[in-house]
Amino acid sequence: MFWGFCEALNFIQQYQKKLSADGSLPESLNILLFGSGDPRHILATASQLFLHPGLKVNVYLAEGCIELLARHMVLLAVAFEDPELLSLKGKTHLFMDLFGNNLIRPFSSAYLSSKAKELTDIITDVEYAQRQAPMFNYETLRYKERDQLENVFRFWTNAPEHVFNIARYWEDRLRVQLGERYDHRNGAFDWDLQMRLRENGAKQVCPQEYKHWRETGIAFTFPEYEQSDPNKTFAVGLVRNGKGFLHRGSVGDNMTGPYIAFGHKCAEERLSRSKHGVNDFRSTDVTERNVLQIVYEIQNRKPYCFDPKDIHQYGAHQLDAGKNLNKHEARTESAEAIHYNKPLLRCDNLTIHFLSVEDVLRMHEMERFAGKFDVVFVASNYLGLVKDGFSRTWKENSLVCFETRQLTVFSKEEIKEHTEKIKAFAQKESLAAVTNFSINKNHPVLLYKRAANK
Predict the structure, then answer these.
(1) Is 78 inside any structural domain?
(2) 333, pLDDT greater than 60
(3) Is 285 inside a domain boundary?
(4) I want to staple 108 with a disulfide (CB 3.0 to 4.6 A). Which of 51, 85, 104, 186 is the partner?
(5) Where in this chain does the record put each DUF4470 domain (predicted)?
(6) What is the secondary structure of 119-156 as a DSSP string?
(7) Could you read off the pLDDT of 383-425 as tens digits, one per residue?
(8) How many domains are contained in the chain?
(9) Is residue 215 in some structural domain?
(10) 230 — phi, psi (to 5°)?
């Protein structure tokens, strides 16, 4: 729910490579993210926009949960934060903390609380939003949904009533999930990693980081940090209850992990080296490198040059992550030391349209989406929500991308079954395969194009 199972894709590059014979681009690209779960594709695309100053990109974000839209907003805000407030390394580690960790640093908790107040002002005041975050467009959200977003942001602020004991919820869910295997959970974790996740192709994920995440929900760790505060961006189903809130506890993926989005591949092959099955770099380290590149290029509008000093190298090390420091009550600062209310970095040729939750099920029949999208991305768990007539939303000569379940802990039979469903849908819609299926390799994403005469 909170992250996807394929690497971040730069859709400008994908469109040029797969559909444009001469590398040319239209004046604008309309991109639909149908249940992407996180903003990885937005960030990968936005970081390269400095190469295409004349191109206008509109990203339409469709999620089935209002809390996910709020999470998209805060993660995007981190990446586009004013450099006077956060350094590049500060943005990188803050993003990783909020993106993948049940428990976060006190600094991250204070940022989330302060940013929640800023985001409340952004979604309740159109003129203020134009000054502070002009790339955000939420005009299609219903007033009820804006009120729900306001409630989500209120829950994120640090107050005694806003309790979210994610460590307990995670452990309770794990006990129910494993049953009698709970007392031997390390063996279960190792089997899921070695016989499923790595066997399916996610070889960058290391045993120490994966087992620690399965045990605690903390995916990204570094020796200099201790995570202690609940990450309230993982709360869904929020309902006001007096001064506090009711919610659904721990939901979402707790078997594959947040490693694939940014920690599966990178440009430097040396980061993928391993010896006797032991990686030189963790998926965490690769994530750090890739997120750092994204925030660098968004901020500086020029290509990132890799420096090994920029990242950690802990592939073969067993880090002492310390005791679980979960606080059962929310942090209650009287006031944050820093107010994160400077305007976000401008990106004049990018607009992110937050679609109504109800649009997920009705998009195929809404006239305003007819023939609108140049690029469509369908998440693996949203394939079942694709309705007859969904292809009405695609332009001729469009690129259609389907996330598979390849880089997950699903069995090979389940992965194959899901892939066959994608292929059957593509055949039904007369889509032409762009992915080369003749190559004997696994595909986290299947790419198709819609013929111009379709």
Answers:
(1) no
(2) no
(3) yes
(4) 104
(5) 2-104
(6) HHHHHH-HHHHHHH-TTEE-TTS-HHHHHHHHHHHHHH
(7) 999 999 999 999 999 999 999 999 999 999 999 999 999 999 9
(8) 1
(9) yes
(10) -65, 140
